[in-house]
Amino acid sequence: MAQLGKLASNIPEGLPGYRLAVIGDCATQHISKAIRGTGAAKGLAISVLDTDYDQILAQTSDPSSELYEFAPDGVFIMMCTEKLYDKFTHTPDSERAGFADGVYAWISARWDELSSGRKVSILQSLFTEYDDRVFGSFASRLKTSFIYQLRRLNMLICEGADLKKNVYPVDFQYFTSKYGTDTVKDSKMFAIAKLPFAASAIPEVASAVVDIILALKGKSLKCLILDLDNTLWGGVVGDDGTDGIQIGDYGTGKAFTAFQKWLLELKKRGLLLAVCSKNDEDKAKDPFINHPDMVLRLEDFAIFVANWEPKPENIKMIRETLNIGMDSLVFIDDNPFERNSVREMLPEVTVPELPEDPADYVDFLRGEGLFEAVSYSAEDGGRTDMYRAEAGRVLASKTCGSYTEYLESLDMKAEAKPFSSFWFPRIAQLSQRSNQFNLRTVRYTEAEIADAAADKDAVTVYFTLKDRFGDSGLISAVIMRKLDDETLFVDTWIMSCRVLKRTMEEFIVNKMISSAKEAGYKKVVGEYLKTPKNAMVAEIYSKLGFNRISDTRFEADVASFKYNQSFIKEL
What we know:
This protein is of the alpha/beta class. It contains 23 helices and 17 strands. The protein folds into 3 domains: 2-216, 3-Layer(aba) Sandwich (Rossmann fold); 223-384, Rossmann fold (3-Layer(aba) Sandwich); 412-570, Gcn5-related N-acetyltransferase (GNAT) (Aminopeptidase, 3-Layer(aba) Sandwich). Helix 1 packs across helix 2 (29-41) and helix 18 (383-399) crosses helix 19. The relative contact order is 0.07.
């Protein structure tokens, strides 16, 4: 905690910023300080407005409050179980069965006030577990017991957040299940100072909040690069053979089976799995093909690299093939030498210090908080197939006589249509994750994407792409807003980097111009706002036919625009 305090007071210059208001029905100043320090440690300068004690209603319901004057990007609402229990004990017995519904209605009203006419993300704390044991275990089925109502309230908050789209629950229940209530809570400190957590738990609380903010800012891990021997199975396949490795339901093999099952769930969520192993390729692949107890199979990996080259070099190749940022990679290896070599040579890669006992792998990695998410779409489960197809395209490009011949051979087809509700989650997700091909780096929630789709003064277009190797799904989105009666302004242009250099950029710009023409506009104005990660698109407008009109803005005349050549056909 002391170290976080030092970081909070000395935030390095040049970090991306975020404005967070913290309101609570308990004392939040220590949490706020820890949030600032944790943000600095994780590469984010968080400006925190910490309001007075028990000011949730006063801050949200007064349009002139300091919260609204602060104009936050996000609001963290910290509500504690102790205050909830006090309210419950003052509720008449006849009304207790509806207690959770009443509290949720109050919380939901605060969300509505915060969201009214504002673009703000709301981080709502879930209530930590507390059972007064008045009814013992029977309380779990008794609607008028506190524990029943507390659990129902948490579920109502989660369900409500799913409907609101700009609300993100902060799951403090996880801490109590991991460490125990006696460790997370300090009854004496709450009685004295209304502190909702023990001092030792505050860094974890702050980390949970900051991880959600980082995900909202588009900083997320996308790919786990995995060693094989003594990481995904016990033993060395080159020495022991496929029959001799430890995997399955017996002995040490159970630990590796549990690890693979967890990895498979991450893959289903949309994270990419890759192999980076010092092995002969045929021997490394054989267990995934022939061992009956293997949970993961070859098709679960976006890319499989097994050779005797240094692992940092292979990781560079994996990154280039998948076309994702180095800072979106996690390297998992049981060997301390390999971990240290990657840390030294590729400092942007996340390298957890894996415990020695494989039985501890899953619990350790779950506790690292590496895989925070703020959205999920139906496409996520198929992401591995998309990247495997991309690896096939890379190989095909090396066998064609020219790049033009390669593009023609792909037989690319794209869908370009106005935003529809089916795609709202994926478009929001793309806006949150896209950093390199993101002209203005504006992040959107699902609710805000829905608002853009319904805006009569906006032109929205989503783009999908497929070719002979497979379907890449939704890979780009454009939001253009009315600047004046003759002009559309490109508020957002985001695109997945995995489809770069296939003339998708040309296809999209052509569609921007034709969509503006159909809507009756004469000009389209684009803007490039520089970030540390989007230098690759600094001149994209100029290259594709726009004229520079200022340091950051570019303009195209709809009537005289010369459409770009593209090898993509519109469906």
